[in-house]
Amino acid sequence: MKQITRTRCEKIYPNIYRIILPLAGGKPGPVNTYLFTGDSPALIDTGTRRTAQILEKALGELGLTFSDIRQIILTHGHIDHYGAARKIVEGSDGKAQVAAHKEDRTLIEHGLEVPRQQFIKYYRLMGVPAVFQFSLLFMRFIFSSLAENCRVNRFLSDGEKIMLGDYEATVIATPGHTRGSISLYFEKEGFLFPGDHLLAHITPNAFVMLEADFDLPRRMSQIEYYDSLRKIEGISPQIAFPAHGDPIRDIRGTIALYREQFHLRQKNIMSILADGEFTVYEIGRTLFPDIGGIRLPLEIFLMVSEVYTHLQVLQGENAVSSYMDKGLLHFKMS
Ligand SMILES: [Zn+2]
Q1: DSSP 8-state assignment for residue 248
Q2: With 60 as the cut, is the pLDDT of residue 6 above it?
Q3: Closest CA to 268 of 325, 320, 328, 227
Q4: What is the CATH T-level fold of the domain 8-333, as seen in this structure?
Q5: 138 φ, ψ (degrees, to nearest 5)
Q6: Is the pLDDT of residue 3 over 80?
Q7: Who surrounds ion ligand 1 at CB < 5 A?
Q8: Of the ranges 21-25, 62-66, 236-240, which one carries the lowest mean pLDDT score?
Q9: Which residue, 32, 46, 70, 84, has most beta carbons within 10 Å?
Q10: Is the confidence at residue 137, as pLDDT, over 70?
Q11: How many A from CA of 157 to the centre of ligand 1?
Q12: Distance from Cα 177 to the centre of ligand 1, integer Å
């Protein structure tokens, strides 16, 4: 895996810093953690466990260590965002409090949202070949090397006001990318810290939300994601500082591009279904013929998640319907 070693710390506003930490693989690229200095230093996201030392070095350049951090706000429960949280908490002698939305608690505290068996059942229903079902184990191994599970001390809810350093932020629940994704809005400054909800260089994924007690997802990730985009448009921040990539100034334009992308994806899925009835895996392989290489297990997961969540939308619009045949879920045009 190619490691991007670019690490940089830049001041984005008085007492607010962007620290760029490397992340293996091309997408979504290096992770931004944001540091708020002042009497009670706080971090938004942490990068992975593997880049904890790099983060500590960057803090050192500002005269801080992990022992100074009092608060860690996690935008959501993905490994590149919470992976180093436990190390920071330990380095602070337990003084750093970890805060996140309660719906991502399981991800942060246990690493997996549902038992592995649920993933395998879901993969089978989607028509994923057995060889890739086992590759989930491999993915799990890689993930656990990048993140340590960490206890969440405080749950954040929509509309809640919190202090980060000297600044006041409002928590905005923006589910879609994960169940418990949050954005932080600094009304006075016009700043938004959206985590992975908005990214400048790629269209964020609305990941499939699996259930521990049911074989198919009940929640519609894409619909929730669209609703969360509308929420951000309603607030109309001046600038967004995402968790990957550069700041976004044209937030409306970026969201408009996402909508075009989603529309195109759904159109392409419909044109595949015009030729017959297929499983999610079959649709995915037609839609993404080029996936492969060392990231294949992850790509398969992303592909199945993306196709399925778009099919949920199309099914909600009565454009497609599904049926079970020999233990596989098939989709067809309505
Ligand atoms: Zn994420």
Answers
A1: B
A2: no
A3: 320
A4: Metallo-beta-lactamase; Chain A (3.60.15)
A5: -65, -45
A6: no
A7: 78, 196
A8: 21-25
A9: 84
A10: yes
A11: 19
A12: 7
Residues 249-282: pLDDT tens digits?
A: 999 999 999 999 999 999 999 999 999 999 999 9
CA of 132 to the centre of ligand 1 (A): 22
| C-alpha 102 – ligand 1 centre gap (Å) | 16
For residue 196, the CA-to-ligand 1 centroid distance in Å is 5
Give the end-to-end CA distance of the chain in Å, rounded to a whole number. 43
Domains of the chain, by residue range, sit at 8-333
Report CA(76)–ligand 1 centroid distance (Å).
Answer: 7
Phi and psi at residue 320, to the nearest 5°:
-130, 160
Measured CA to CA, the distance from residue 6 to residue 2 in angstroms comes to 12
Residues 130, 127: Cα–Cα separation, whole Å:
9
pLDDT, one tens digit per residue, over 8-61 is: 899 999 999 999 999 987 788 999 999 999 999 999 999 999 999 999 999 999
Q: How many CB atoms within 10 Å of residue 119?
A: 20
Q: If we measure between CA atoms, which residue out of 278, 275, 324 comes closest to residue 304?
A: 278
pTM of the predicted protein model: 0.94
